[in-house]
Design goal:
- It is a single chain.
- With 176 residues, the chain is an all-alpha fold.
- The chain has one domain.
- α2 packs across α6, α3 packs across α6 and α4 packs across α6.
- The longest helix has 35 residues.
- It is elongated and about 55 Å long.
Length: 176
Amino acid sequence: MLHWFLSTLVVLIHTASPILKTYGMLALFVLLFIESAGVIFAPGEATIVAAGFLSAKGMFSIWAVLPVAMIAATLGGYLAYWLGDRFGHRVLLRYGRYVGIKPIMVGKAHRFFLRFGAPVVLGGRFIVPLRQLQGYIAGTSEMGFFAFALWSAIGAILWVTVWGGGAYLLSGMISG
């Protein structure tokens, strides 16, 4: 298990490091923002892990990386919520059948999210592709924005701290 975890970290770091080295904090912000806004294949975890490791190597300040990443992830989720709230329910009912989504499924998801939305939003930050889709789902399901905003922000803070801060600390332990 440890070997798999460390191997995965190496792949994540090698994937995102060249992007971060070339474009810096702007890349960190943009990649985390678009991933949280729903771009499923954006390398969010790779980016925050690489940023944590590069911070430990002196390329960035971890005290800049963590807040930038937290803000980007939070704001991306808010955009996804707005899109889901504005267009989601109507679009799912009209076009969902083309991708296997039936109106009864939309209703079940709606009821589930109204009941369990907060823990889904909080824990969903750690689950691909729920991290990328939770804003749309919450907005489409009419979860209140205040509740979504609070739990999404807390989830983003925890997710960034665990992955970015963890990579920073792990790099320090490996190097020193």
